[in-house]
Amino acid sequence: MESALSEPVVAGLATDLAGDLVTPDDDAYDQARRVWNGMVNRWPAMVARCAGVADVRRAVAFAREHDLPIAVRGGGHGVAGAATVDGGLVVDLSPMDWVRVDPDDRRVQVGAGATWGDVDRETQAFGLAVPGGVVSDTGVAGLTLGGGMGHLRRKHGLSCDNLVSADVVTADGAFVRASADENEDLFWALRGGGAELGVVTSFEFDCHPVGPEVATCFVWHRGERAEEALAFFREFAADTPRAVSVLPFYAWVPEMEELPESSWGDPAVVFFGCYADDPEEGTEVLRPLREFADPIADFSGTMPYLELQSMLDEDYPHGRFYYWKSLYLRDLDDDAIAGIVETAEACPALLSTVDLWHLGGAIADVGETETAYTDRDAPYLLNFEANWDDPRKTAAAVEWVRDSVAAMRDRSAASGLYVNFPGFGEDSEQVAYGENAERLRAVADEYDPEDLFGRAGAET
Ligand SMILES: Cc1cc2nc3c(=O)[nH]c(=O)nc-3n(C[C@H](O)[C@H](O)[C@H](O)COP(=O)(O)OP(=O)(O)OC[C@H]3O[C@@H](n4cnc5c(N)ncnc54)[C@H](O)[C@@H]3O)c2cc1C
Questions:
Q1: In ligand 1, which atom is closest to the CA atom of 453?
Q2: pLDDT reported for residue 419
Q3: Is the pLDDT of residue 460 over 60?
Q4: What pLDDT shows up at residue 454?
Q5: How far is the CA of 147 from the centre of ligand 1 (A)?
Q6: Lower CB density within 10 Å: C or N end of the chain?
Q7: Domain-by-domain residue ranges, the chain?
Q8: For the segment 162-198, what is each residue's pLDDT rounded down to a tens digit?
Q9: Whose CA is nearest to atom 8 of ligand 1?
Q10: pLDDT score of 290 more than 80
Q11: CATH number of the domain at 99-209, please?
């Protein structure tokens, strides 16, 4: 889409920025306008690659003056693709990827363009970690602002639970700090409901001693025993220590040389996770998941935490087609397990997975209304991840996810939606935030009364 702005006006912005301004005439434009999800194909008027807070303030002011829709981009991995916008201005924070650790205070300051790989690398140099996600090139910003669950979730909580403060450029161009004692309402909202409230320019997190080696579980069991495997996991999970964060998922064995060729394409249930404490102890605690049955393959063992954190990276290449949608389960009863297996078996795209995130532990220590993130007492999050390469499968893949979510909502004690696995954002804020929706709306109205960041027009 062509920008209606005159050349001198655009050139003026380019001159003001320390970072680059990419417009449709630039060679870099095609790459700059894209996000991770190949389903999202938008044509912004310009992409401001911000080098620092001054650039962010200038870009936000420019969008406001010229009535341009804004998209804010952290790591660009938002599944719904909200980090780009047709005809608008993308505030691209990716150059702001600095990380500064204070090992004595066990704190880390993180620029809003950093990925979890950037943070893990710096914090692990001091034997520390912040709970992040399970893929290293995901952005710290979007993941934290929506909650953030990974391998440390049950022991140390969500990413947003470890947030100490955030620096934010608001719609009016002000620069504010949000923390437990400054702009408390904004701080409350940023933890789980943080997208489209303003531009967070940096995050400050608490860190925890982790690794460098951790005991991991990555064992592939046969899909024909899926119901039995999930029932077995339910019993295992009922009284497992909070150092254990395991995610069982239903998948189809990929054509990889590490996996036996005779099983390629077969359904499987994989137990994937780690024990975030003493590795020897963890190996014993995780052992039952490996020995539940004779597995197709077992890659479990002790490994560096850094390696665990990037182990799935190559399964999620840029530009593939993705549509992911979730719901919380209040009970993993037999009916829910039957539903998970039935919906999984109907999947039309075999790069997909059905993920059952075991929650609880530290996540449930925080009260339901203490942060915008909701459904804290749910023991599981179920996420249908459709992943496919062939565009002719698009309609079937999206329909499979939507039908599966609807079927699980009908048949089991289900609630809500995790905003980081949101479909294309078609659900209401009420669905995603429940009893916190009204307060979140009030914070958005206070900090962005003219809806510069498009929250009012968006769903989740
Ligand atoms: C491969 C992959 C693996 C994932 N694994 C996990 C996982 O293990 N755990 C988990 O919880 N989630 C996971 N997710 C989901 C992830 O949390 C979301 O996709 C998240 O939005 C990604 O953040 P981002 O900064 O990369 O995305 P972006 O697309 O840049 O941003 C996502 C949203 O946040 C807003 N935003 C980004 N930066 C800022 C900012 N600085 N200030 C204000 N708003 C901002 C954007 O406007 C957009 O609405 C995964 C996603 C992918 C693609």
A1: 47
A2: 97
A3: no
A4: 85
A5: 10
A6: N
A7: 8-92, 99-209, 213-415
A8: 999 999 999 999 999 999 999 999 999 999 998 989 9
A9: 133
A10: yes
A11: 3.30.465.10
Query: DSSP assignment of 21-53, as one string?
Result: EE-TTSTTHHHHH--S-TT-----SEEEE--SH
Residue with CA closest to ligand 1 atom 13: 133
Write the CB contacts of 292 (distance below 8 Å, at least 6 apart in sequence).
221, 229, 232, 271
pLDDT in tens, 421-435: 999 989 989 999 999
pLDDT of residue 2: 46
Taking the centre of ligand 1 as the mean of its atom positions, its distance from the CA of residue 73, in whole angstroms, is 9
Mean of the per-residue pLDDT values of the chain: 96
Ligand 1 pocket, mutate which of 73, 167, 199, 200 (most atoms under 8 A from CB): 73
Structure tokens at 300: 């479990």
CATH placement of domain 8-92: 3.30.43.10
Residue 311 banded pLDDT, cuts 50, 70, 90:
very high
Q: What is the CA radius of gyration of the chain?
A: 22
Is 354:249 a contact under the CB 8 Å cutoff?
yes
Tell me phi and psi for residue 252, to 5 degrees: -115, 135
Question: What are the start-end ranges of the E strands in 149-243?
Answer: 163-169, 175-179, 199-206, 208-209, 213-222
Task: List, edge to edge, every strand of the sheet that includes 107-111.
Answer: 99-102, 107-111, 199-206, 163-169, 175-179
Q: How far apart are CA 288 and CA 278, in angstroms?
A: 17
Q: How far is the CA of 83 from the centre of ligand 1 (A)?
A: 9
Q: Which CATH architecture has domain 213-415?
A: 3-Layer(aba) Sandwich (3.40)
Question: What is residue 350's predicted lDDT score, i.e. its pLDDT?
Answer: 86
pLDDT at 455 over 50: yes
Q: Is the peptide bond before 212 cis (omega within 30 degrees of 0)?
A: yes
Q: Calculate how far, in angstroms, residue 226's C-alpha sits from the geometric centre of ligand 1.
A: 30
Which mutation among 85, 135, 138 tests ligand 1's pocket best, with the greatest number of atoms within 8 A of CB? 138
| DSSP 8-state secondary structure symbol assigned to residue 352 | -
For 104, residues 6+ apart whose C-beta sits below 8 A from its C-beta are none
- Other Cβ atoms within 10 Å of 198 Cβ, number: 29
Token reading at 330: 């209040």
Which tokens sit at 152? 């440390």
